[in-house]
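Hi all, long-time lurker, first post. I run a small reading group and we've been trying to get comfortable going from sequence to structure in the token notation. Rather than ask abstract questions, I figured I'd post a concrete chain and ask someone more experienced to write out its structure so we can walk through it together at our next meeting. Sequence below, copied exactly:
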Amino acid sequence: MPGAGKSTVGVVLAKLLGKQFIDTDILIQLREQATLAQIVTRMGYVALRAIEGEIIQQLDVQNSVIATGGSAVYNLGAMQNLQRLGKIIYLQVSPKQLRERLGDFAQRGIAAAATTSLDQLIEERTSLYEKYAQHTVDNENCSIEHVAEKLSSFKEEEP
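-- Answer (accepted) --
Happy to help. Here is the structure in token form:
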């Protein structure tokens, strides 16, 4: 979910593991020369989801921690590529904590219809996150470092 800590924890985890950090939201913004909110305003949330899916499907990296946008789970090809690249982790946060972290939900450039509430988005996405996650980590009231430590314990499996 937006506000779950993917980018923040991802940077710390990459440093802890000595890996590259990739934030697909930044890749989207660089490609489109616009913020996520601008993309949603200009092209719509469905277009943002499609762009995100394309970018994730094209990723071919190793030794990397990847933070995706929260809507990556809508694109099967993107999720299959992420599974090929490594482990998929679901950072779980309560709706209350998400509200506190997100502030003005409408200004975030979230890939959802303008009429979608945070509660609706949570309900819609949670089953998808659970479907694809190989591990779920509680990120409720935890320090960034504590969550990164938890994640670092998920050793990569040999091919």
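A couple of things your group might point at:
The first helix runs from residue 6 to 17.
Strands lie at 20-23, 64-67, 89-92, 135-138.
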